[in-house]
Design goal:
Elements (H helix, E strand, L loop, with lengths): L21 E7 L18 H9 L1 E7 L5 H10 L3 H4 L21 H7 L3 E7 L19 E5 L12 E3 L2 E3 L13 E3 L2 E5 L6 H18 L4 E6 L20 H23 L6 E7 L26 H4 E7 L7 E8 L3 H9 L14 H6 L7 E4 L12 E4 L2 E7 L20 E10 L20 H17 L32 E2 L1
Helix pairs in contact: 5-6
Enzyme class: hydrolase
Subcellular location: Endoplasmic reticulum; Lysosome
Protein name: Arylsulfatase A
Length: 502
């Protein structure tokens, strides 16, 4: 079995390069805070991510800007809460009319304007639209190999896509067109061959890196993996390789892809001038039980504004530039764009950003400029605003609600039966001593010593909500079945006739 484990041995640091750094941004899908070996899972085999953690900076208090796919991805690429781009409520579907607005400025657009080669590989989920209006190639990525939306929005939810028993497709109750993989703006394959998908991604990614280095161009690679979103899949090299079952096999394939990217950059001779950052889009889908991931000690998972829904594993690695260690400084996916801008010397976009430049934290271990984080739910409503607010070590819940994706945990607060509830005064937790959000500090009323904390939290919430501008909801533009991708647009009957490989 071919398993990539990247080991740096005898690497001699070169003098600091004057060339702008390459950027590799690795985004997992539905991977929970407790899913990696370096975050404490006892049976997860993740040697490459563990290696990155031991040789880079591992975050303990890192947040995604949303507890589900599309809005979290919009915020990652723009440095803005999804409210500003209109990527709310919920997610995009194959026939969605909307997408990430073309007026939004992405990391790729900024870096492309600075002479970078840019490529996106994997799961987009920020809209397709008529004639590919919202594809990555319209948002600053010169190359795209991947899927326009989530891989469960096409094949059956209960697929088993592991060699040799590969029943990836079948009678499906979704009524959707089968999943396509795009090369730039053309469908390369429909339906996707899941068991060969990640090897295809790796071949493309490695070729992109080598060509950029050979042409002496800095590069930005955004690798947005499908792993470990349900339903899981893997290639033959990883099937049956994990004591954690099918979820573990998919996780091992993801970890192997991280090793391949690290190894390719090392072989190309640019490891010391390449900044890697890894994190996940939201918490685990616990409704899938052992096939849904783990929040570790955190409360609930995907779809909720509890810690398990939005606090994510995150690792920064830059050989010779970042001192290895672990940090409890607060950070977020919102901070990636301004940090990349600072590290590359690119100009900041002329838009309102919600992120902070973390470069001083990364390079010199200064304090994080982020001391506050606002938690938006999946069903963003301007009338309610944020559900929770972190203020230093304290977290206040103004609203709580369970979610379907967080079913099957012992905690009833996570379940769909935990209906929307208003809290006045808010629930308050000390996340330094109680990251699992078990002990409400206001259970018996507001103690005198915490009155100043509550006042400061309330003032910050009012300030934030007054300053927030809500764009038109892209999801409210609705669904048009004719927009569903089909490699043979003249065929009938759709969507079942949409089969081809170019």
């Amino acid at each position: 079995m071919e398993v990539w484990i990247f080991i740096l041995a005898g690497f001699l640091l070169q003098p600091a390069l004057t060339a702008p750094p390459n950027i590799v941004l690795i985004f997992a899908d539905d991977l929970g805070y407790g899913d990696l070996g370096c975050y404490g899972h006892p049976t997860s085999l993740t040697p490459n991510l563990d290696w990155m953690a031991s040789n880079g900076l591992r975050f303990k208090d890192f947040y995604s800007a949303a507890p589900l796919c599309s809005p979290s991805r919009a915020s990652l690429l723009t440095g803005r809460y999804p409210t500003r781009s209109g990527v709310f409520p919920g997610v995009f579907y194959p026939g969605s009319r909307g997408g990430l607005p073309l007026g939004e400025v992405t990391i790729a657009e900024i870096l492309q304007s600075q002479g970078y080669e840019t490529a996106m590989v994997g799961k987009w989920h920020l809209g397709l639209g008529a004639n590919g209006t919202f594809l990555p190639t319209r948002h600053g990525f010169q190359q795209f190999l991947g899927v326009p939306y989530s891989h469960d929005q096409g094949p059956c939810h209960n697929l088993t896509c592991f060699p040799p028993n590969t029943s990836c497709y079948g009678t499906c109750d979704l009524g959707e067109t089968l999943l396509p993989v795009f090369l730039n703006e053309k469908i390369l394959q429909q339906p996707v061959n899941f068991t060969g998908l990640v090897p295809r991604y790796m071949e493309f990614s490695k070729s992109f890196i080598r060509k950029a280095v050979d042409s002496r161009k800095p590069f930005f690679l955004y690798y947005a993996s499908h792993h470990t979103h349900y339903p899981q899949f893997a290639s033959a090299a990883y099937t049956g390789s994990s004591p954690r079952g099918r979820f573990g096999d998919a996780l091992r394939e993801f970890d192997g892809s991280v090793g391949e990217l690290l190894g390719t950059v090392f072989d190309a001779g640019v490891l010391d001038n390449t900044f890697f950052f890894f994190t996940s889009d939201n918490g685990p889908e616990t409704m899938r039980m052992e096939r849904g991931g783990s929040s570790g000690l955190l409360k609930c998972g995907k779809g909720t504004t509890y810690e398990g829904g939005m606090r994510e594993p995150a690792i920064a690695y830059w050989e010779g530039k970042l001192k290895p260690g672990v940090t409890s400084e607060m950070a977020s996916t919102l901070d990636i764009l301004p940090t990349v801008v600072a590290l590359t010397g690119a100009p900041f976009p002329n838009v309102t950003l919600d992120g902070y430049d973390l470069s001083q934290l990364l390079l010199y271990r200064h304090k994080s400029p982020r001391n506050i984080f606002h938690y938006y739910p999946t069903s963003i409503d301007p009338e309610r605003g944020t559900f929770a607010l972190r203020f230093g070590k304290y977290k206040a819940h103004f609203f709580t609600q369970g979610a379907p994706a967080s079913e099957n945990t012992p905690d009833p607060d996570c379940h769909i039966t935990a209906l929307l509830k208003v809290h006045d005064p808010p629930l308050l937790f000390d996340l330094d001593t109680d990251p699992a959000e078990n002990y409400n500090l206001f259970k018996e009323g507001v103690p005198a010593d915490l009155e100043p904390v509550l006042d400061a939290i309330l003032q910050e919430r009012v300030r934030f909500l007054k300053a927030m501008e809500y764009a038109e909801s892209q999801m409210h533009l609705g669904i048009d079945p004719s927009l569903r991708p089909c490699c043979n647009p003249e065929c009938t009957p759709k969507p079942s006739c949409c089969h081809c490989e170019i």
